[in-house]
Amino acid sequence: MAPVRRCLLLALLGTALPALAAPLSEADVRAQAEQFVVRQYAAPGSRVDVKSEALDPRLRIADCAASLATSLPGGVRMTPRLSVLVRCPAADGWTLRVPVELHVFRQVLVASRPLVRGDGIVAADVHAEQRDVTRLPYGYVESMDQVAERSLSRPVAAGSVLTPSALGGRQMVRAGDHVQLVAEMDGIAVRAEGIALGSGDAGARMRVRNGNSGRVVDAVVRAPGVVVALP
Length: 231
Hints:
- By secondary structure, this protein is mainly beta.
- Helices cover 13% and strands 35% of the residues.
- It comes from Frateuria terrea.
């Protein structure tokens, strides 16, 4: 065969033969699982850290003629540990379960001081901190919009993450409201107009300014728009 014809034949064969896919490694499968989890949990203002665990060293991963498919069998859940299914969808494919450790860091509201049951929450009561929300099984609150006009259903210690379960109903009294200030003594009740200097639900303590005398007294919320002066 003439050298020119042989070179042309080799060139034609070289373009006709498909490139062989590189064998799949454990690192390939683990990287596929990690990238999938990051995509599922990524959100503005969040930082996602994922680390997969080593697979069984006896495992031999066959090549896959198709693109690998990934899924979360339990759905997207905010838990520290997940299992990702990595599957070869080819006719003679396979499925592997890859355990991963998940960390999702977000800004959440934390109590700046001890908060009392019944208190309304204002900006000075809380501050934002970055926390791993996968380690917060009772949930978390991200913004003041979520607590607007809400009161606490239980005490919250300083430094504790504010949770949805700690939020009660809407406040019966809000700062600046005109309220009925009731003073009780020896079975006699005296009523006056007052202005609430704080916010809260039933049972919350707050300061109230007497509309007649201008005197500021401590009071407790009894009903919507009604507070009782403390002795």
